[in-house]
Amino acid sequence: MAKLARAAGNEGKARVCARRAVGALVGEYFRRQQIPVHTPSAYDRLRYLCNSTELPVETLRLAQHFLARVSPDYTLPIQADLIDEAEQLRRRLLGGG
Questions:
Q1: How many domains does the chain have?
Q2: Which domain holds residue 63?
């Protein structure tokens, strides 16, 4: 969905879709690690993940990008491609190609 939104020129929707996808993959990571996190909130899952001391710094840095709030002009305060970073985070947390 994020890639489709970007292709349609809707970068805001692309970011939202990427964040939702990351929330789901973090939930799957917690399930696989048998870490009990009982919240449907993608934001809360990401905050919980970012407080981990078990993950590499680069993985945590990627996860933190999804917590960045957009500015009043709807831009990110960081240079990041959240779609690409969602895919990187998926590989780091869940493996696979």
A1: 1
A2: 2-94
